[in-house]
Amino acid sequence: MPSVTGTACLAKREESRGSAPDLPCYALPSAMSQKPPARPHVLLIDDDASLREVMSFHLQEEGYEPDVAPDGEQGLKRFDPAIHPVVVTDLKMPRVSGMDVLRGIKRRSPDTLVIVITAFGDLSTAIDAMKAGAFDFLPKPCDRDHFKLTVRKAMEHASLRAQVRELHGKLDSAGKELIFRSPLMQKVIAVADRVARSEGTVLILGESGTGKELLARRIHRNSDRHAAPFVAINCAAIPRDLLESELFGHVRGAFTGATRDRKGRFEQAHGGTLFLDEIADVPLDLQPSLLRVLQERVVQPVGKDTTVAVDVRVVAATNRDLRKAVDTGAFREDLYFRLAVIPIDLPALRERREDIAPLVDHFLARHGADRKLVASEALMRRLEAHEWRGNVRELENFCQRMALLAEDDLLGEEWAPASEVQPSGASSRAAIQLPPEGISLVDLERDVIVRALEMNHYNQSQTAKFLRIPRHILLYRIEKFQIPLKERS
């Protein structure tokens, strides 16, 4: 069982029963193992061997790990956005100049900070470098303290950028954590946490609304890529003629409306994780391009002749049977095997009913503002018996509706309409005889409301409670069906 990071949230409901809860409800913990902090790497590019040695020594004095390259060509080959937040490069080098290095690095990783070294007095070149995106420039020969201070400032700036990206990622999923108590979900999460540190492609299988994207975000947060972007795309929500550009990017003029270069989702997720939701909906003719990216780690933007290297961990998800799609020819078998390196089955909510109570408490707390909304035991039994075909998403919508409409903090059984939630073993179908010639649902609903009003002597509050709907919903139905209200007897 995972460690506890949540707090008991059934207290008020348990007060009505006069007993302590058997099990607290948990928010899933972050399962990242602690590793000793690594020394930050700095890529140092200069064709002067003696100067490289001196600057390497200065970097080591500051606690950095210098990675050196003797020229611009070797420097671009050694550059890795995942481990080089800061690059120091000379501007005047043979073959590949420092300006070419600067442009190449900024093209691959815009967030990487580049410090350029230029000969004393060559101010115009330094200005050009700053315009091209350099963080700062240093005159040659470099003053020891000035060099250390500039690198330190760049590293602090890079660290702040990484923290901002991480905070944005947390804000994107704020309040949207996986909540569980069932042994079944404990096993699923244990697998996800175990594979998070790997680079294997993950395929999450599960019905709509089970929390596949939340699981993908958890895998990203627990991975070594957690400081880099998490980018999600719903493949089913984008038209075929736009999906290729969304995934791989395009250049200006590639098609009508392409007024500027645009990076695709793979490039946007460089160094991080790309979540491909509804992967089964990727068109068959686009699947070879996707397979190529997964195999060769390069993308070719639409309208561009050359490829761009990408470093991305892919997590895909679908609510469909991909094996069946492969058998029918709707999905490539080689792409399936490439995606399903680590398959994870996310169970439906009806298969883990132990999670309904903590989920209800979590959603009521989220949507209830400062109120202490609690579902009664009677209501909870009704909720736990429901099938929840829309899974956790449907349950959250239901709880949000209760939180918005409830007048009392303790939510009773009247909040579980028979049309939405059926108690276990109940059979509402036997209560209404359906004639073979058909029936008008509108007339039936109006007749039920009229009979309920008559039974409750036209007391609207009692009638709403009898029909298990909020009072304002009853008033809306009365006005909709133009039902005349009689005096109470």
Structure keywords:
42% helix; Rossmann fold; 489 residues; 5-stranded parallel sheet; 3 domains; Arc Repressor Mutant, subunit A; single chain
Q: Any idea how many domains?
A: 3
Q: How does CATH name the architecture of the largest domain?
A: 3-Layer(aba) Sandwich
- Under CATH, the topology of the largest domain can be stated as Rossmann fold
The biggest sheet, with number of strands, parallel, antiparallel or mixed sense and barrel status, is: 5 strands, parallel
Give me the Rg, rounded.
30 Å
Tally of DSSP helical segments:
19
Number of strands: 18
The CATH homologous superfamily of the largest domain: P-loop containing nucleotide triphosphate hydrolases
Shape estimate: elongated
Structural class, from helix and strand content? alpha/beta
CATH C-level label of the largest domain: Alpha Beta
Mean pLDDT: 84
Termini separation comes to 60 Å
Strand content range: 5-15%
Estimate percent helicity.
40-55%
Sequence of strands across the biggest β-sheet: 3-2-4-5-6
Task: Kindly summarize this structure in a few lines.
The protein has helices at residues 11-17, 49-61, 72-78, 98-108, 123-131, 144-172, 183-195, 212-221, 240-248, 265-268, 287-296, 322-327, 333-339, 356-367, 377-385, 391-405, 441-455, 460-467, 471-480, and strands spanning 26-27, 41-45, 65-69, 86-90, 113-119, 136-140, 179-180, 202-205, 230-234, 249-250, 262-263, 273-277, 298-299, 308-309, 313-318, 342-345, 374-375, 410-411. The protein is an alpha/beta fold and 489 residues long.
